[in-house]
Amino acid sequence: MSGHEHPLTDEEAAAVFEPPAWEERYSGEETLWSGDPNPQLVAEASGLTPGTALDVGCGEGGDVIWLAGQGWTVTGADFSANGLARAARHAEQAGVGDRTDWWQVDARAFAAGGRSYDLVTTHYLHPPDGGMVEVAGRLAEAVALGGHLLIVGHAPSDAFTHLTAGHRRAMFLAEDLLPGLPDGLEALVVEQRPRTVTRDGVTVDIHDSTLLVRRTK
Ligand SMILES: C[S@@+](CC[C@H](N)C(=O)[O-])C[C@H]1O[C@@H](n2cnc3c(N)ncnc32)[C@H](O)[C@@H]1O
């Protein structure tokens, strides 16, 4: 997400959430993300027995590569072909290409289609206008019995006033997602976790909305 110097038209504001905008962002040479695994993933997945995992909105593959290195067999999913190509390249370079595969899919239309995973995870995927509630339900359908769903996003806060109103509306609290979940899931973590980031050399306190649920039936 990035700031804008002039107010966006409604059409421009809606376009930032769509595949062409992300294809454009991933079209250059420079990487957008650090390549390090996200801290809430490390905190929660480190205690799980490795099995199969799905990372939706995987971007350049930092979390996929970390999970694969921990012994998971991982599918990285994203709606950006350029993002997935970068992720696949990074996975090969990291020596985990044989533990990873890739799925181009829009999370808003995600359908498990009979596939199930021991861990379904997504970090900083922010579909517009509260869309993450429905996405949470769709992703939950892909969780195997005894498996986990971990959803992490930005909690709305004054730390994001440099972003567009649409971006801020797309952020969510962990508890906002609960109504989207089907039966048969036990909530293990529903909270906003503090985290400090450095933006343009300035330290900023933010919160990660963190939802961890387990399929019990
Ligand atoms: C903010 S980046 C986060 C990338 C990665 N999860 C991380 O934490 O570094 C969001 C990613 O989600 C993808 N994305 C955004 N909306 C999506 C959607 N509706 N379906 C699938 N992927 C989406 C983008 O292409 C991008 O790679």
Characteristic key phrases:
7 helices, 217 residues, 29% strand, 26% helix, globular, 7 strands, binds S-adenosylmethionine, seven-stranded mixed sheet
User: What fraction of residues sit in β-strands?
Assistant: 25-35%
Radius of gyration: 17 Å
- Give me the count of strands: 7
Ligands and ions found: S-adenosylmethionine
Which percent bin holds the helix content? 25-40%
How would you describe the shape? globular
Helices and strands: which structural class? alpha/beta
Stretches with pLDDT under 50, minimum 5 residues: none
C-alpha termini separation? 37 Å
Largest sheet: 7 strands, mixed
Count of alpha/pi helices: 7
Strand numbers in spatial order across the main sheet: 3-2-1-4-5-7-6
Give the averaged pLDDT, no decimals. Answer: 94
Q: Could you spell the SSE succession in H and E letters?
A: HHHEHEHEEHEHEE
